[in-house]
Amino acid sequence: MGVSALRELLAQWGVVFAILGSNRFQEDCDLGVVVRIRRWFRLSDHSPVPSDIDRARALIDAIDRGGVPSDPLRVNAIARSLGLEVSRRAPIGETVERIRAAVQRVDSSHLP
């Protein structure tokens, strides 16, 4: 094995070790590659997936701050995840109000 082949092999292993968290080889490899690979594997971001009620709360909060729901499919998906039956032809405002009522029911049932 030649010196250049050995360097190539070490560079490849350096990326692997960098992904696994070792700082020993990070200076030898392209950190852009490491960042892209970490994002791809989601090793650096262990954020939990929001629950259905958290997604509904985020939607309601955004609307209360003045936002306009522009994606009726997303609003309908949130409503359906809460167990609401939603027609494809239902006005988005009506669906939002039904989501708001469902969030209020959940919040009032969990009061201490």
Key phrases:
single chain
Structure description:
With 112 residues, this protein is mainly α. The protein is 62% helix and 0% strand. It is built from 5 helices and no strands. Helix 3 (52-64) packs across helix 5 and helix 4 runs parallel beside helix 5 (92-109). The longest helix is centred in the first third of the chain and has 18 residues, at 3-20.
Which helices and strands occur, and which strands form pairs?
Blueprint: H1 3-20, H2 31-41, H3 52-64, H4 72-81, H5 92-109
Helix pairs in contact: 1-2, 3-4, 3-5, 4-5
Condensed summary:
The protein is mostly helical. The chain has helices spanning 3-20, 31-41, 52-64, 72-81, 92-109.
The major sheet is characterized as:
none
How many helices? 5
Number of strands: 0
Mean pLDDT: 76
Q: Could you say which structural class the secondary elements and strand pairing correspond to?
A: mainly alpha
Please bin the fraction of helical residues. Answer: 55-70%
Give helix and strand order, one letter per element, not per position: HHHHH
Spans with pLDDT under 50 lasting ≥5 residues?
Answer: none
Regarding quaternary structure, how should these chains be classified? Answer: single chain
Shape: elongated
Separation, N- and C-terminal Cα atoms: 69 Å
Amount of beta strand: under 5%
Radius of gyration: 24 Å
